[in-house]
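Running low. Got one?
___
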Amino acid sequence: MHAPTPDASASPAEPCDLVTVPARQGLEAVDILRRGGAPAVGPVLHDGACDTLGFLVPPGTAAGWDMPGSACTRTAGRGLRLPELPELPGPDGATPRPADWLLPPGDSGEVTDPAMLREALGQAARLIEAADGCH
């Protein structure tokens, strides 16, 4: 169960929250969202070592985010604005790493819908688990 979905049409000029996941799961989720006809896959960041991906989601998402294997950082009020590139937490969760765009911000200003992202990340985790179990 999670909090109601914040408005996914947050403007890129507005603060956004950031969902950070392992790169493999994040890449699968991007593919799932794009194939599934999601209304929008918002901007996605990757760290310099490509260990993690960060999905920009509407402000307020962090308050209800509880998906294992991921973290949602509340950035509202801390100045994350597009197209400024934040640093992403490293695999240890603490050491920040420089980021670059995997999917840069578009003209629409859309960020990724948190409910759709949650579903795609869950499906990605199941696909990865199945693939890793088939050795």
Q: What stands out?
A: Strands lie at 17-22, 44-47, 52-57, 71-73, 87-89, 96-103.
